[in-house]
Amino acid sequence: MREWCAQNKSDLNLHTVIEAALDTIVSDANFNIPLRNLRQLSDALRHCSAEHIIRLSKRFDIPNFTSLRSPVEERVRLELNIAEAVYLVSPEQAWERFWNTYKETISLPLDTDVSCYCFTRFRFL
How many CB atoms lie within 10 A of CB 125? Predict the structure, then answer.
């Protein structure tokens, strides 16, 4: 489903596929999803219509996902993807998510290239 989302960002049913992917992930308590997969799925959020972005972004905030913190780089990219999508609908909510991510990031031991990437993304929110 991640690949489909990546290849069909302009499809009107994109939100339905993201929803189905999240339903599938959440339905199996024993399924351990890598942060990279969540991040790749979240990349499609900004291509959804405004009416779906906030609802879908909240789906990424469930404990199964928010407890995943490693690798740190993927966690930061996931949060930035969500903040970028939310910004299209609610700049205030996006800024709050961004600020929380920034506060976490500033104290983390990130590689220089990852830090630069993240701070560049912060600049555009």
Answer: 17
pTM score: 0.82
Torsion on CA atoms 74, 76, 79, 81, rounded to nearest 10: -70
Closest Cα to residue 57, out of 74, 35, 81?
Answer: 81
Angstrom distance (rounded) from CA 103 to CA 96: 11
Distance between start and end Cα atoms, the chain? 27
Check if the beta carbon of residue 39 is closer than 8 Å to that of residue 6.
no
Q: Report the pLDDT averaged over residues 64-79.
A: 72
Separation between Cα atoms, residue 107 and residue 43, nearest integer Å: 25
Is residue 114 within a helix (H) or strand (E), and if so which, with residue range? Answer: helix 112-123
CA 107 to CA 7: how far, in whole Å?
35
Residue given tokens 């998510």 in the structure block:
97
Angle between helices 35-42 and 14-27 (to 10 degrees): 160
Residue 65 pLDDT greater than 60, yes or no: no
CA 110 to chain centroid: 19
Q: Is pLDDT above 60 for 41? A: yes
